[in-house]
Amino acid sequence: MAACAAHAADPWADRVVSHASGAGAVPSYSDPLTALGMPERFTGEGVFPGAVTPFNPAWGGDELVSVGAGGHLIVAFDEPVVDDPANPYGLDLIVFGNAGFIDDFYPDGTVRPDGMLFGEGQLPLVEVSPDGVAWAPVTARIDALFPSLGYRDLTDPYSTSPGSVVSDFTKPVNPALNLAGMTFAQLVAAYDGSGGGTGIDLAGTGFWAISYVRFTNVSTSPAAFEVEALADVSAVPAPGTVGLLALVGVCASRRRREL
Ligand SMILES: [Ca+2]
Ligand SMILES: [Ca+2]
Ligand SMILES: [Ca+2]
Q1: Which of 39, 79, 118, 248 has the lowest tally of Cβ within 10 angstroms?
Q2: d(CA 187, CA 125)
Q3: Element (H, E) at 164
Q4: What is the distance of C-alpha 191 from the center of its chain?
Q5: What is the pTM (predicted TM-score) of this model?
Q6: How far is the CA of 92 from the centre of ligand 2 (A)?
Q7: What are the tens digits of pLDDT across the range 166-206?
Q8: Distance from residue 251's CA to the centre of ligand 2 (Å)
Q9: How many whole angstroms from 251 Cα to the centroid of ligand 1?
C-alpha cells in the first residue's frame, strides 16, 4: 500500500535543497526551481513554439537549470523513489535534460547513423541519498540519451502545435535501444509510449529508496550540463500479479454480493 500511496502523490522532484551555478553555466538557465515538477511537453512559447521532441528539446529559460564547472544541484522528492523490482528495465529514476538528435535531413527528423546529439551536457557525478547525509554514486549519463518526447501521436518532429496523446514521463525508454538512423516515426514507435530521459537504477547503491539526488559538475574547465526535470518511475506489476489482483477483485465483488 505504501507504493500506491507514493504514486498517488506526484512523481516529480519537489524541492531544491542546494544549487551553485559554477563556471560556464548557461546564463539564461539560472533558476534551479525549473528542475522541479513535470518535464516539458511544449517549449519556446511566444518565440518559436514547438512540441518537445528528440529533435526539438526544451530550451526556454523557465524550463532548465544549467550547472557549470564546480557547481552542483541537489533536489529532493517528497515521496521516496524506490528500487522497485517491478520498475521497467530495473530503472527507478529518470532525469531529463535538453540534448537532442542532430537532424541531417531537416525538417524530416532522422537520427544520424552515428546517433550524434546536440546540447549534450558535461558528464556530471550523480549521487543519491535517502536522507541528504549518506550518499552513493549512480551510473548515469544525464543530459544525453534519451532526448525528451512530449507526445505519442505527432508525425512532425517540429510540430508548432501540441499533440493530443501525451507520453509517459514515468516510463523509461528501453536502455538497450539503438536509435541510430531512425526516422521520427520509428523513434516514436521505439520509445513505446515513454517520454524519454536518462534512466537510473538504484540497485548497487545500498539504498532501497532515496529522496535526494545530487548532481556535481566535476569538470576542471568551464563546461555545463542542464537538468530539465526528474521523475520517479512507475512500477509495472508482472502479468501474473495483475491476474492475481484481478482475481482478488473478483473474489471481493463476489463476497460483497454474497453479503
Ligand atoms: Ca513529487
Ligand atoms: Ca523543467
Ligand atoms: Ca532498480
Answers
A1: 248
A2: 29
A3: none
A4: 13
A5: 0.90
A6: 19
A7: 999 999 999 999 999 999 999 999 999 999 999 999 999 99
A8: 44
A9: 34
